[in-house]
Design a protein that fits this description.
104 residues, 5 helices, 0% strand, membrane
Length: 104
């Protein structure tokens, strides 16, 4: 398929290169998906970063068993949430983009 598309390429005359290219509906849907991916990535990795900073700043303190259990639990959730953005892109594209759903 890529070879077929490459064979259909043609040179664009110099006077047509400076024309503005309009974005179609699929382009806007792809941009929406990319923005959604950015928001998910930033929000979930930010939680992991805050958790790491907190653990590094309180590592020299003496912790009660309850506080240690809570910190370990939140640290585990933060580690889990760090890996979610790498797995969720399919679902974001599926739910946000109508064009992607129709190609499935």
């Amino acid at each position: 398929m890529a070879f077929k598309n490459a064979r259909q390429l043609r040179c664009v005359p110099r006077q047509q290169r400076h024309q503005f290219r309009t974005m179609n509906k699929k382009d806007f849907q792809l941009l929406r998906c990319l923005y959604a991916l950015d928001i998910v990535y930033i929000s979930l990795t930010l939680f992991a970063a805050i958790s790491n900073v907190y653990q590094a700043s309180t590592q020299d303190e003496i912790h009660t068993p309850l506080r240690s259990a809570i910190e370990n639990f939140l640290g585990g959730i933060a580690a889990f949430s760090y890996h979610i953005p790498f797995c969720i892109s399919f679902f974001i594209f599926l739910f946000v983009s109508k064009a992607f759903r129709q190609e499935m």
